[in-house]
Amino acid sequence: MSKQRIYLFDTTLRDGQQTPGIDFSVEDKIAIARLLDDFGIDYVEGGYPGANPTDDAFFDRKRTKDARFVAFGMTKRAGVSASNDPGLAALIRSSSDAICFVAKSWDYHVKVALGCTNEENLESVRASVEAAVKAGKEAMVDCEHFFDGFKANPEYAIACARTALEAGARWVVLCDTNGGTLPSEIKTIVGQVIASGIPGENLGIHAHDDTGQAVANSLAAIEAGVCQVQGTLNGIGERCGNANLISIIPTLALKPAFADRFETGISSGQLAGISRLSRAFDELLNRAPEAQAPYVGTSAFATKAGIHASAIAKEPKTYEHVPPETVGNRRKVMVSDQGGKANFIAELKRRGIDVPREDTLLDSLISVVKEREATGYAYEGADASFELLARRMLHTVPDFFDVISFRCIVERRFDANGNIKTVSEAIVKVSVDGDERMSVAEGHGPVNALDLALRKDLGRYQNELNDLELADYKVRILNGGTEAITRVLIESRDSTGARWWTVGVSDNIIDASFQALMDSVIYKLMKNRELAGLVAAE
Amino acid sequence: MSKQRIYLFDTTLRDGQQTPGIDFSVEDKIAIARLLDDFGIDYVEGGYPGANPTDDAFFDRKRTKDARFVAFGMTKRAGVSASNDPGLAALIRSSSDAICFVAKSWDYHVKVALGCTNEENLESVRASVEAAVKAGKEAMVDCEHFFDGFKANPEYAIACARTALEAGARWVVLCDTNGGTLPSEIKTIVGQVIASGIPGENLGIHAHDDTGQAVANSLAAIEAGVCQVQGTLNGIGERCGNANLISIIPTLALKPAFADRFETGISSGQLAGISRLSRAFDELLNRAPEAQAPYVGTSAFATKAGIHASAIAKEPKTYEHVPPETVGNRRKVMVSDQGGKANFIAELKRRGIDVPREDTLLDSLISVVKEREATGYAYEGADASFELLARRMLHTVPDFFDVISFRCIVERRFDANGNIKTVSEAIVKVSVDGDERMSVAEGHGPVNALDLALRKDLGRYQNELNDLELADYKVRILNGGTEAITRVLIESRDSTGARWWTVGVSDNIIDASFQALMDSVIYKLMKNRELAGLVAAE
């Protein structure tokens, strides 16, 4: 039996742009369109040409290679001919392969928002679709508020869909614009639409996450017969977001209930790039990827529980709903005070450290980790500090240098012009190869000053640290009030693209930050040697 | 027709504890149990007594008033009698109302993970439930991997459920432990379980979010007949998280498809507290609430200025799937001006500050707040700083004292005995009534030192500040890397029982902390005068 083809339609650049706090530049749009195109999405909706200068510029040429490039806009206004509607003209003029018209399909909104008759609205749909087709473009119609409209007046909602198809539209997309429709309602209504004679091959679904069910609504519509699914990267979008394509695509491809009946344009090789796609998009938005995101989050295949960890090491398949590598992700058994010995061995192994189960150093390491976690360290979030601690206890980290002392001063006062000025200065004294060196630096804040001073003169290690950068800095106060313990997590990166987290804990925030900084520097030096195969030779 | 009662079971403190990066202290657990209990949850699962010292301490007394307090643990081991199993004994001994046993219901796992026979596993379920019931506790059984187990061997999965009920369990909970089951599968399997003779009144659902459908899976199970739903606050949990009760509860209460058939223990008054509950929990975790969270996120009812905004102002009901106030949230149309001004007037009024709409000072205040929020201030979480700013701009705060300068030094070195020692010292110069005073203090960390030095000598204000205490201190880095901006929130309290939050923002953490400290001290002095009715007389 041949499988039904499901078409993937991405609206990150159009509906995703409605996300509070997100505004794409033309360059952002170009980069995102390329990501989507390379990944294998069928339709990339780029925006609303004619509505703003960014989208005008973005649509001045075709921005995709394989994907169909879609312009979004309103149907022509009632009482104006298609050839005289400036909005429609801008859509036709744009360098798009397809036009997605948004049309009212709830009679109440036709009256209140458009202020025209139901028949005039149908006529606008018809004329707009015909104009697009005549211009050689693929036409589709987003039926806004379709499900609410169907509940109020099913005949009119269906008439909108039918008018669009009769005028030559390739697709009619059923939109749950307010996002409040439930999966069982979606399934029933899609079934009724198809039963009314509209073919599922021409239907799409556009869902929003206002009840936390946009993914389920989209999949329910596919089960009921629609063949196009709209959504966004990582589920961005207005209010609670759009359906998350990053969650929908793996389910379509990997779950027998879907994979046995349907196919998409995404190959298994492309699917293995979906974790990278999701993270690349977050990078572009300059935000931290969501660790708990389905399929692609760094925690999606992570286990903390001691009771499960040893079983997972033995039989991963029965504990994982899909193999992590199919979506380009990986298994992670976390170190924490809940984990057992098997966790530790597995984690050390993943880092290339082989320790026999009966080695007493392993027991010492476990008890040190537990002791430190009891005082506030969190090694599960600080991979590099954990690896460093393990290697130190197993005697495979050289003493690169010693910090003899540091001092750091923050001073606020009025400058000569009467303006308030805050200056941070740090002095660090280190010993490298028996040689004492003192460095001083000013920074934005005491931690930045300490970082600069620490790395200012480390003798023969100096040049290795040039590409080390702080990428993120997190502070958590573990117990409020005056006896507060501060936990600092620092993320570092270097020019190889590697990123690592280190941790420091103290009742003094500067001290905690310094510990995390030191771990990061030492880890970087150790990593360099490991790459060069020099650990043993030091 | 009477409605079917659905019972809400929260496992934030047990399964939620499996979230990477989350570790609750006993104090955290006490605070969260109180939030859940006050909100009206039926069952609060507190943890795993016998497994770790935190849970032992937490279960040394009952921690809920109305909710049933549930201990989680394994069924007794095969080959050991119930009375000789130390794990079971710890559960029975705990101060819980109910025990939730986890039991294998997938024959494959019985063999591989437990290493016992199918019959021995059933016997462990039976004996454990009987022991709990005999001890006067409500018993329930979490059937681990139920759906995967059912697909592999439906008879055995059902036998586990039946054994538990026959032994006296109140509930059998069907767990989608790996999180990969789809809503349509859940619906079919729950239907088959009920058709086999297990009453829906005794069934619960426990779903995970590995395909982004934990909420849909839970609701599908309820539609199919289960009467208990398990989940966590804000959907925390292992891997991709558990079913999010914060999303499920409003759908059950507000959507006719559910509300017409089912009822929960949550009144409409309690439901209006759900946004507050969700945010209070994030506060406790010291993380930013998710703006796009269904129902409760600050963006859940927000519309970006555009085609919808003016229509929403006219006809909110047809653009919102539920009224925001039913879940204690509010509409947000981001076109500012009119709506913005009314908000400000209301916010000021709530603090006893009356400003006429046409007062130009009000416009200045609005623009200063917007400007500051754009640079990172968050007045929503810092009531006292907002009130202070408003009163300052409306000229009703006296100049109590001026800070001329401060200096703060953190030094780490080896002491005479060769131990590392970190000392923090702060010097503050203030002017009170034209009189300059300098104070110096040592503290645990630079912020503590600054706080002590600032309050050491403030002349005639000195005695008023004796009962001022710092209760909490939170730090958030607003944009990672080297241009990081630090936001510090400080919670203060005094002997009247009042608590207030102040905020400071700077690229320098010490500077940001000092701003928040200063606001706290000034707010306290202002509050004292207000209580004494002396503001005008200063």
TrEMBL record, chains A, B:
Membrane-traversing stretches: none
Documented EC number(s): 2.3.3.21
InterPro entries: 2-isopropylmalate_synth_dimer, AIPM/Hcit_synth_CS, Aldolase_TIM, Citramal_synthase, LeuA/HCS_post-cat, LeuA_allosteric_dom_sf, PYR_CT
Domain of life: Bacteria
Catalytic reaction(s) noted: pyruvate + acetyl-CoA + H2O = (3R)-citramalate + CoA + H(+)
Pfam families (UniProt xref): HCS_D2 (PF22617), HMGL-like (PF00682), LeuA_dimer (PF08502)
GO molecular function: (R)-citramalate synthase activity; 2-isopropylmalate synthase activity
Ranges in coiled-coil conformation: none
Pathway: Amino-acid biosynthesis; L-isoleucine biosynthesis; 2-oxobutanoate from pyruvate: step 1/3
Alphabetical keyword list: Amino-acid biosynthesis, Branched-chain amino acid biosynthesis, Isoleucine biosynthesis, Transferase
Leading EC class: transferase
Protein's GO biological process: isoleucine biosynthetic process; L-leucine biosynthetic process
SUPFAM superfamilies with a match to the protein in the record: 2-isopropylmalate synthase LeuA, allosteric (dimerisation) domain, Aldolase
Residue span(s) of domain Pyruvate carboxyltransferase: 6-272
PANTHER family: (R)-CITRAMALATE SYNTHASE, ALPHA-IPM SYNTHASE/HOMOCITRATE SYNTHASE
Family to which the UniProt record says this protein belongs: Belongs to the alpha-IPM synthase/homocitrate synthase family.
UniProt protein name: Citramalate synthase
Organism, scientific name: Mesorhizobium denitrificans
